Every structure is written in C-alpha cells, then in structure tokens.
Amino acid sequence: MNVLPLFAELAFRGWFPLWLAVALGLVAAVVVYRIYSRESLKMPPLQRYTMAALRVLAIWVLLFLLCKPVLVDDFKEDRARPIAVLVDNSKSMLQADPRLNTPDRIRVAIARGDREPASGLTPPASAGDLPTDSPSRIEILASALKNPKLDLPARLRLKGPLAPYLIGQRLRGLSDTPENPWTGQIDGADNRSAIMDALNELLQRDENELPAGIVLVTDGRDNGSSIPADEVGRELARLGIPLQIYGVGGSTTGFLQLKDIPIADTLFADDTVTIPFRWRSQGFTAGEIQLSVKLGGKTVGQAKRLPAKPGEDITESFSFTPTEADAATTGPQELVATIELTSGGQTLRDEVRKSVRVVSRKVRVLVVEREPRWEFKFLQRTFLRDRRTEATFLLSTGDREAQLARPYIPVFPQTRQELFENYDLLILGDVPATYFSKPQLEWIRDFVSEGGGFAMIAGSLHAPADYLNTPLADVLPVRFNAIRAAADSGQRTEEFVPKLSPVGSRSAMLSLADNPEENERLWRTLPGFHWFYPVTKLSPAAVSLLEHPTAKIENNKPMPLMAMQYYGKGLSLFCGTEETWRWRWNETGDPEKFFSRFWGQVIYQIGLPRSLGGRMSQIALEQPEMVLGKPGRVFARLFTRDYTPLMTSKVTARLEKLDARPGEERFSTVTLDPDADQKGEYRLTLSNDREGRFALTVDSGASEPTKLEYRVTLPPEHESARSPMNEEYLRKLAELSGGTFYREEDLYKLPDTVTAKSVTFSRRQEKLLWNWELMLLFVGLLTMEWIIRKFSNLS
Same domain, yes or no, for 733 and 715? Predict the structure, then answer.
C-alpha cells in the first residue's frame, strides 16, 4: 500500500470561537503593552518590550488552545482489492455422489492429495490405486482446501486479501483467525441456496469496495435466487470481475428408492403371488438390479436380476408361492421387499415392509340367483377359475336335474349349521325373498352378524325390492323403496360412467391397478352402465364406494351404486347394478382383467374375515406418496372388539420414524379426529416435516393394532434431493462473466488466473494540536517572563 500526502490545512474544532480568540488576543496585546509601558521602575526598553512580548505570546497560545486546533492532512492511498471466496453451504453439499467411473475416482484422489494436481485424468497403472469410497461434496471441498499440493488459500492471498463468505439463504461473511480459520466453518447447514442473489448482493457495493475477482465453490444447485444467472453473468462481465468457479460433485448422482409394493393383506398358500415392485433410479446407466423378498424372515422365491436403467417410475413383477408352512404361522407376518443396485463397485439398497397373513383354506362362496343372467354367467366363470375360491351355485328357477351336480346345489342350506359351517361368503342375486323361509332369512342375518360375508347384486324384479321388511333390510348398507320393473320395461338409460367416492378411491376392493393414478384413470375409461337401482340413503354405519355421476339422494349427495357396511362381525356389500360384466369390453383387450380382479377382491375383502377369525381395522393414505413439506391426510376405519364402528371423540396413535438416526426423535403421539358424517371413520393430517420411512400404529381396542407404513420423500426442488452437479449451468455462468469453470483435474490453475488489482482513493487524516508541545511552549513563555521579572527586581 503506497500513501502520499496531498496537502494539509488547519481547522478548529473547539467550543471557543476563533473570532473571539483573535479579538481577545488583540485586546490582550494592547493591555499588556500599556501595563509594561507604565512600569514605574526604570529599565531598558528592550527588556520592557521583551517581557511584554512574552506575556502576549503566552496569552495567544492559551487562546489558540482554547479553539482546539486540528491539522488536517489529505493522503492518496493505493489499496489491493480483495479476492472474494464464496462457498456454497447448503445441504446439497452433504450429498455423497457415487464414484462410478475412473475420472470421478481420480478427482477424489487429486482433492485428497494422493495424486499430483497436474497429473490430469490419466488412469493409473492399477485401478486399485484409486479410492473406492464415495465421500460427500463437503468432504471433497475440505480435502481440496487443506491439500498442501494445491495450496489454494495461500496462493489466492498472493493476489489480494481474502474475503471468505458462505452462501445459503443469504450471503454472510466469515471471520478468519488462526484459532478459527474460515476453511473450518463450512458445515452444509443451510436449507436453501441463493447463489445468484449472493453474487448480486456482492456487486451492489460501492465501486471502490468491489473485489478484484470472485471464486465460487458450489455444486450449482440454486433453489432460492430471484435473479437469473445470465443477468448476473453479464453484470460481472461489465464490471470486469471474472467468476472463477470450482464445481464440486460427481459426474452423476446415484439414487435408488423403492416406492411401493402393492400387495394384498392376505396371501393364500400354494397360490402364486405376484408383487409389482415400483422404484425410481437416477444416475445408473450400467450395473445390475436385484429384487428379493423375505416372508417371516425367510427368503422366498428366486432373486430376480435385471439390468440397471434410470427412470422415475420403473415397475417389474416378482413372483413367489407361499407354502403351507407359511400358513401355519398364526397372525400377521412381515414381508420385506428389497431392491439392490450394483454399479461400478458401488451398491445401493432400499426396502419396503408390509404386514401380511398367509392362509391355507380357500374362501367358500355360495352364489344364489333366480336365473342365469349375464352377471351370473361371468361370475361363475371367474369364481371357478380362481384357485383361491371354492364356489357353489344355486338357481331358484330352472332345470333341477341340471343342478344336482357340482358346482350347483339343488336347495339352499336347510339348517343354520349347514350355512355357517360350509360357507364364508353369500352372494344373492335377483332372487325373490319368498324363495327363503323366514328362518332362512334370519339365518342369513345371523350369518353376517357372526362374521360371514354378504353381497347383494341388485336386479330389476326382486332385489332389493322384496327385502324391504325382512330380516335382511338392516343387513344391507342402503335404504330403499320397493321398485320393480320387468327387464323389457324401457327403464334402461343412456350409458353413464360411475365415479369412485373418496372412500372407494382408497379401498383395495375397487383397486383395478397397482398405481393409484392409473386406477383413477381406469375408472374413468371403463365401459359404463345403463341401469341401476335407485336407493334413498345410506344406512347409518355404511360408506359409499361407487357413485352415480348425476343422480342424488337426500341432502343432495351422490347416489350410491356400491355401498358397504359392517354388520356385527361381518361385512355387507350392496351392488346397485347388474352390469359389471360390461367391463369385459375394455381397452386392454383382456376380457377377464378388470371384471375378475374386482370380484376377486370382493371375495377377499368380504369373505376372508370369517376365514381369519376376525377383521382388522383399515387405514389408508389419501395420496400414494407423501412429500416433505406438503401435509397429507390419513383415513382410518376403526372398530371395537365387538366389531361395531368405533364412536370415541378422539383416537391416539403412535407415529414411529423407522430410520431415525441416533439422537433423533423416534416416537411421537398423534391424534385422529372422527368424521362427523361417517361413523367409525377417523382422519389425521400429517405435517410431513421430516424425510424418511414412518409407521403409524392405531389401536382401537380391536383384536390387534392396525399399522400403516409409508415414506416421506423429498420434492425435486428440495435442497437435499438427489441431483448431479449442475456442470452445464456453472460453465455457462463462468463463460458469461469472462471467467473459467474448474474441476479437480485443473483446480491447480485457478489461483494463477485471478488477477491482482488495486484501487486509489484519498484519505483525510486529522491531528489534534492540543498536545504537550504547545503546552510546553505556553509554560516556557510564562517561565521566561517570570525569570526576566525576577532579574529586574519586579514583583
């Protein structure tokens, strides 16, 4: 720094005004002169005027000091401009990129000092000389800053004083002391990064305070800036401040996440189970995927191996067959689906856990119909093909001789015991109520109450019209009037497409696809119906599953086409149309696909509880994927030990973070609130304020708690979301500013490209003259006068 004085001036900063001091000085001079001129003693004139002059000078010095004189000097100063070092301190810097290729491994070795900085990306003689681990971006940066072979901080200081900053949600300066160097204050703690805003803030300073150059260290993830990068780049170029960028991160990012494994809660022994694995993968274009499943701690099926590929929603099926030994386990078992990806010596793994039951006995179904209408014919074909179903059929009219052989039976069970012991699910079609005796109708009611499944498929003549004042009226989940019409009465309407109710969209019974979004689409595109039975309202404990698009019931609610309720220990379903067979004409060209899947799920949902000796409560997410920061709702259908809908004002549940780290809160208690419109249904809004895997356990007092596992994922724009270094973005920004983009292989060149600059400015310096020299002069003048007076014999 060169300092040259320009000029100096005298200024007065005291409370005593200069004009008064001058006036008093003149008066004092006159008074002193008159006093000494009238002195009675005879003395030489020189001696007399010398003493007068000394006295006047002393007074003038005193008055000068009272004015507080200041000497002002102006200096010209040349000062080196600082070198600003901006380091990205956001959480994306904590990401560990898999080092899948040789260049990325070489970059790790250069940063750590295991290779010479100028050696470039030339592969070593042996691949074993390269690191195989995957350090985080912030660890790579720390290694590069401490690497004595690179010596970055010291070499940058040769170009000017360093001004280190951290970039996060805002720009903040760092202190730099021997006890706490700035290189040790980078911790990746910021939730957002506003790189462009930070650069713009630096450029808004006074022209004389601008840096000579800016070194930006980042992975290029900017999710908080309001200013475009090209605008900042052009401004840097205009000001002549080139941006030297050190890009931290691997060439690719490795990300593997198993999204879901849609699977039924109940599996059948000796029946092939197909699990659709759904996952997302990023950064892997080579390698191998392995899918495997464990049931009750034992590996089942053969591990499936596939070539790795990137994608947001990859689906692959895995099949296995539960055994009788699996079914021998009482109660639910844990099924663990695992996906592993191996690529470039790196292995990523993820898993999803589900609670399932394995049963060995088939669901025994009795279908009673008046005559073989279309719905009956296709149901019969579906049930007979289903290996998990033991189906029996009864027609109330027709040739009795033809109905003597299996799968037909000639008459309805003649005793209560015969009905209870031989069947799990009873399906009634358009059968006259008069076909059954009063005791038989009471048996059916009791059969449902004691845990049996019941379904009624409406018809135009008898069902449900005939059952208005029978024991089955309360079993049905809907209330209705007796309406009858012949098949050719002209009541058929134009085609209409039914809609899933909110409960129906979450019900496994109406799931026609493994993906919830695809399921919604399918229900919109399936062939519609032309006829339905109008009901007046739902039963108090019932829920609507499928609704008419325009028809209404009381309170202007949609007309239920399918409704369900728990009656005692059993489950009752009402299907208000006889035309689900129309789904056989669908866009897939597979006539059995949706019709068979729907009715198969009806069997498992309604008939299985009796086989399992009870019924679990139900709990489901409103949307299939939970995203961090976006609240999501959970719906629960809860029951007491006597199988009636729970009616408490609130229900507490336990929320567990399954992948909690040491020191992180693992358990918390949440509260479910009841739905005012639906008995037994409860709702909970989850804040989703933490990423990871969770389990929500609800205990309503039933036979066993109900558990729901789910995952909270990061939104794509989140700071911690997996993404590779944004090299293209950073290269373009450096080019716009007139700077250069660097990676580890050429990082040693960075300090040499920074140009030292200085700025010249004037500095004003003030020196207070109220000092000991003037005080000594004042005392000296008075002393000299006193000495002369003594030698002159004056008092």
Answer: no
| Angle, CA of 615, 620 and 621, to the nearest 5° | 175
Residues contacting residue 498 through CB under 8 Å, at least 6 positions apart? 523, 528, 529, 546, 547, 548, 549, 561
Are 50 and 132 within one domain? no
How many whole angstroms separate alpha carbon 478 and alpha carbon 543? 9
Within 141-202, strands assigned E span 162-167, 171-173
- The alpha carbon dihedral of 194, 198, 201, 207 has a sign of negative
**Domains in the chain, number:** 5
When the pLDDT of each residue in the chain is averaged and rounded to a whole number, the result is: 85
What are the structure tokens assigned to 12, written together? 């007065």
CA 475-477-478 angle, to 5 degrees, is 115
Same structural domain, 664 and 738: no
Bridge partners for 299 per DSSP: 294
Is the residue at 509 inside a domain?
no
| Residues 580, 595 contacting (CB under 8 angstroms) | yes
pLDDT digits (tens, 9 = 90+) for 137-179: 999 999 999 999 999 999 999 999 999 999 998 899 999 888 8
Q: For tokens 């060149």, what's the residue?
A: 749
Indicate the residue type of 166.
L
Distances in Å between the Cα of 504 and the Cα atoms of 609, 624, 683 are 19, 14, 15
Evaluate if residue 488 carries a pLDDT over 50: no
Helix (H) / strand (E) element for 355: namely strand 346-359
Is 505 among the domain residues? no
Q: How far is CA 51 from CA 35, 59, 311, 745, in A?
A: 11, 13, 105, 85
Between 288-302, 338-352, 406-420, 440-454, the lowest mean confidence (pLDDT) is in 338-352
Residue 429 and residue 456 share a domain: yes
Question: How far apart, in whole angstroms, are the C-alpha atoms of residue 254 and residue 151?
Answer: 31
Helix axis angle for 45-66 and 18-37, nearest 10°, is 160
Domain membership flag for residue 513:
no
563: CB partners within 8 A, 6+ apart: 477, 478, 535, 538, 539, 542, 543, 544, 545, 573, 574, 576
Q: What is the CATH number of the domain that holds 638?
A: 2.60.40.1930
Asked if 734 and 237 touch (Cβ cutoff 8 Å), the reply is no
Boundaries of domain holding 313: 254-360
Pairing type for strands 543-552 and 499-500 reads: antiparallel
Does residue 560 sit within a domain?
Answer: no
Q: What is the CATH number of the domain that holds 576?
A: 3.40.50
